[in-house]
Amino acid sequence: QQQQQQQQQQLEEEIDYDEETPIELPREAFIPHVFPNNEEWRQGKLLQRSDYFHRFKGYHKPQYLWIGCSDARVPADVIMGEDTGQVFVHRNIANQVIGTDSNIMSVMQYAVDYLKVKHIIVCGHYDCGGVRAACSAVDHGPPLQQWLRSIRDVRRLYKDVLNAIEDDEERHRKLVELNVVEQCLSVLKTGIVQKRRVRTGRHRLPPLPMPRGPPA
C-alpha cells in the first residue's frame, strides 16, 4: 500500500497543469493498481484456456437478464457462478423496475426482443442501503429522493405486514423480499414481457433476495 501511495504521488507530480496545454494523463494516473490487475486477470484466463477471449467475438447470446442492486457486494455472474457472456446485467439502487425509467426499459427491450434471453431474474439482497434509506426520515434530495419513492410505496402497501414484525432487522429483511416481489410484478406488467409471453409462453421470474456471504 505504501508503494502504491508513492507511485500515486510520483504520477501526480509528473502531470503538467499548464492551463495553455491540454492535460494528457498516463493511463495509470490515480488508479495505478487497476491495469496491472487487469493484465494479471487476462493472463490467468489465457492460461486456463488459450481461446478464452476469442469465444466472445461477434456473438452475444446470454441466457439471463439480471436486474439487481448496484451494491458492489452483489456481482451477478460471480453469485450465479456463470461464465462471461451468460448474464446480461442491469443494476440500480435497490433493484427497481420503474416504467418511466428509459434506462431499464431499454435494457429490457434489448434483452427480450434482440438477445432473446430465456430468463429474467430480479435479485435483491439483505442489508440493502437503498431499502434502508427509503425507510429513514431523511430527505435525500433529488434525484435520489424520487428514486426511493417506489420502495416507500411498497412499504406503505404492506404496512400491516411490516408493522406486525417487532424486530427492526427482520422487518428490513421482509421489506427487501416484498420489494423484490413487487419489482417482479412490475417486470411482468411491461408490454415488452407481455408480448414475449404471448409469443412463447416463457419468462418466469424467480424473486431472489440474496444474503451477503455465508448463510447464518
From TrEMBL:
Classification via Pfam families: Pro_CA
Cofactor note: Binds 1 zinc ion per subunit.
UniProt KW keywords: Lyase, Metal-binding, Zinc
Cofactor: Zn(2+)
Residues holding Zn(2+): 69, 71, 125, 128
GO biological process: carbon utilization
SUPFAM superfamilies recorded: beta-carbonic anhydrase, cab (SSF53056)
Record InterPro entries: Carbonic_anhydrase (IPR001765), Carbonic_anhydrase_CS (IPR015892), Carbonic_anhydrase_sf (IPR036874)
Domain of life: Eukaryota
EC number of the protein: 4.2.1.1
SMART domains, alphabetized: Pro_CA
The reaction(s) this protein catalyses: hydrogencarbonate + H(+) = CO2 + H2O
Molecular function GO labels: carbonate dehydratase activity; zinc ion binding
Top-tier EC class: lyase
Functional description taken from the UniProt entry: Reversible hydration of carbon dioxide.
PANTHER family recorded: CARBONIC ANHYDRASE
Record-stated family: Belongs to the beta-class carbonic anhydrase family.
Protein name per UniProt: Carbonic anhydrase
Source organism: Pinguiococcus pyrenoidosus
